[in-house]
């Protein structure tokens, strides 16, 4: 019934009411597998409403009835989500759990496969998750098979009708880069969202017709950029205006993983600034230290917004004694407009001028920090202004070089050509990259480092991927050394 209700509050009310009923049923008969199964289903639904994850009932349901495909599927989803958890959620998990929950893609695959064995093609979402899990472990043939089955799955229920995608073969997926973050998948958006991982593994096998469709319809860098890099999440925050209407406090939505104390809120100030392209961009100033010499102008990754990043900003700034100033790209969070390469450059320009005029911070006291796609506007700005320093975290040489690793030159229609702008950066540059980066290959960081005129000792994090560099101890150690010692000397 909750799925038939449009109003979110009413839907949540029905879910919570059903959860209370199933809890009473659990007290009446704790040995019935169906009770544990539906308790697990409702815990999943409740988790979507309030961010709580509990899976004990799934294990109990499987113990009582090992041939229940639905419960096997849900446990597979739990294993996958734990394994696929982005860095900022891992940080939160470490805060709340002495031993954070762990799992593997192989474990998730066991549950999805068992569910399929028990009841073949019982659920389109199980086919979908099988395809995604095989992608994660680089099993391309099985990924093709299950993604195709998911895309051609017949409609049996109202949910299937709502979620059914067009029958598109996996080899026709044509999106390229999907850097950091958590993107929830449903059947409707599955092929589009899988495009990132799938194309990274199969792009070199695309036909000439498919390449033309990707890059030549029409052959404009801005269109390529849109296909390459932007995955704005649903906003996780709002701005609440003060009496003057010029200052805003950050209010996180219920779906945000982190909520602030009143004391922390006092150190966060939000406001809007207007870009040269007419968009209204949300900005955030996080005052982490009263004695900070430097303020970091932070350009975040492609699938997060200020709400998701703000807790990280508080932690980072307090640990390296810097204040943090950040902004949301056009089309992200509560910023207006649509994300594009041109808007990316206009957005950081507007943030730069707002930081200097509103807070009176001089260029020599500003550190530009770009992460993943955020390195693109960071390099562009740094090539035009001399600043205190630049930090490039998992940088990319250009869009084409990410999609086609053997690309040796910058083509006219290439997007994000940072490799050609880096030689113009006159400020000290610290490059950070994981050696096992699965999204932007480690070779990109090396090439950027080699082209920087004033590159300092880089940080190559052995074994780190694209989304977990921050979890390694050397990350903070190197930043502290750079900011507190090298820049001051």
UniProtKB/TrEMBL annotation:
It comes from the Eukaryota. One of its GO terms (molecular function) is palmitoyl-(protein) hydrolase activity. It is found in: Cell membrane; Endomembrane system. Its EC number is 3.1.2.22. GO terms for cellular component: endosome membrane; plasma membrane. Keywords: Cell membrane, Hydrolase, Lipoprotein, Membrane, Palmitate. It catalyses: S-hexadecanoyl-L-cysteinyl-[protein] + H2O = L-cysteinyl-[protein] + hexadecanoate + H(+). It is an enzyme of class 3 (hydrolase). Pfam families: RMD1-3. It is a lipid-anchor. The keyword Hydrolase applies. Belongs to the AB hydrolase superfamily. ABHD17 family. PANTHER family: ALPHA/BETA HYDROLASE DOMAIN-CONTAINING PROTEIN (PTHR12277), PROTEIN ABHD13 (PTHR12277:SF81). This is palmitoyl-protein hydrolase.
